[in-house]
Input
Amino acid sequence: MRTPRGRDPPDDSRTPTSISADRANGCEMPKMAAGCALARLDLGEERGARSTFRDAYRRRRCIVPVDGFFEWKAIKGHKAKQPYAIAMKDGAPFGLAGIWENWKEPASGEWLRTFAIITTDANELVADIHDRMPLILAPGDYARWLGEEPDPRDLMRPFPAAPMRMWPISTRVNKPENDDSSIVEPIEVATDAA
Output
């Protein structure tokens, strides 16, 4: 899953649904080309949030404003995946739950700020193509997500599918240099990709 400005190639080796710390560099969050990663927090009763993200989850939550995101559907018998755009039916922007971190890049000594978008189980709409999706916050939950509460885990649930839409788009989205509005135009898909 990717945000429109933070795309990665759609092969499985570069599409994490969870990430771990880059211990070799001593970083608390991995450095990503677009400054963004995806994070699947394990908030089970026994373990709590993964230690990689525990402090950021408790103290450094953020909201990432977007007007849509991309997901790729695996097509049985095909190497290529079909990309989809997912947004609100009314075209309104929405907020994705995130966490952020500052860390010093060991080689350069430069301080970097990175963030990760929290994922959750897919809702009924997105479940047709993937089992996870970004954690979309309802506007009424923004203040609580950004507040002092150390564990607002009840907000970590799939966003309702009713106000959302999803449509197939061109594989042009797979190349970052194709950064124009035409990449989100709907396309017809072959019957075996639907």
Remarks:
- The CA atoms of residues 34 and 90 lie 27 Å apart.
- Residues 12-193 form a domain with the hypothetical protein yedk fold fold (CATH 3.90.1680.10).
- The helical segments are 51-59, 142-146.
- DSSP finds two helices and nine strands in the chain.
